[in-house]
Amino acid sequence: MAQRSRSVPRKKPRQERSRATVDAILEAAAHILVAHGFEDTTTRQVAERAGVSIGSLYQYFPSKEALITALFERQIQRVLDVCTEALQSQGSPSTQQVVRDVALGVMKAYAVNPRLHQVLISEGLKLGMMERVQSFEQRIETVVRTFMLHYSSQLRSRRVELATFVITRAIRGIIWSAAIERPELFEDPELADELGELMLGYLLPTSPSRSAK
């Protein structure tokens, strides 16, 4: 129980000033975690970078584990917001365009600070946060699965559950590889087009864009 309490933030900020303090702490923690890793990160480093006293940090976060928990929850919400907005805003009747929108949405979702995301997944698993990791993946899959079911009559006949798994994991793998090997690709608009082509070839009976070529 004591270990669990150390991994849970102490209180949620209610006033604007308190929220600003917590935001600064979490931004500082994210920067240091990505730069130095969990083992070499200290709460004192985080407090110094955030410009707050160590006592102020401890008012909200009793440990590094609590910072990881809070960052994980914030990252999940940011990713889901991006993904949901992109996948629910299609206005084009073109299936090809919708598929590209989906590719862009999932790409944007996994590209929300991918290096931090990798650190959080890795450390979250070490800290026994498997349920949070699984919940994150399941919630993104739910959004993609909804799209698959809605457009199922226009897509190649596939097992929706399996296809959803393949799409989300394939794009995640590409995005995380880009984060490590080619971070400049996040500034290249053609990356989304290439991911769209990948999905078109997988989901549609034939790829109209390729046939046109």
TrEMBL record:
<dbReference type="InterPro" id="IPR023772">
    <property type="entry name" value="DNA-bd_HTH_TetR-type_CS"/>
</dbReference>
<feature type="domain" description="HTH tetR-type">
    <location>
        <begin position="19"/>
        <end position="79"/>
    </location>
</feature>
<dbReference type="Pfam" id="PF00440">
    <property type="entry name" value="TetR_N"/>
</dbReference>
<keyword id="KW-0238">DNA-binding</keyword>
<protein>
    <submittedName>
        <fullName>Transcriptional regulator, TetR family protein</fullName>
    </submittedName>
</protein>
<dbReference type="InterPro" id="IPR041669">
    <property type="entry name" value="TetR_C_15"/>
</dbReference>
<dbReference type="GO" id="GO:0003700">
    <property type="term" value="F:DNA-binding transcription factor activity"/>
</dbReference>
<dbReference type="GO" id="GO:0000976">
    <property type="term" value="F:transcription cis-regulatory region binding"/>
</dbReference>
<dbReference type="InterPro" id="IPR009057">
    <property type="entry name" value="Homeodomain-like_sf"/>
</dbReference>
<dbReference type="InterPro" id="IPR050109">
    <property type="entry name" value="HTH-type_TetR-like_transc_reg"/>
</dbReference>
<dbReference type="Pfam" id="PF17918">
    <property type="entry name" value="TetR_C_15"/>
</dbReference>
<dbReference type="InterPro" id="IPR001647">
    <property type="entry name" value="HTH_TetR"/>
</dbReference>
<feature type="DNA-binding region" description="H-T-H motif">
    <location>
        <begin position="42"/>
        <end position="61"/>
    </location>
</feature>
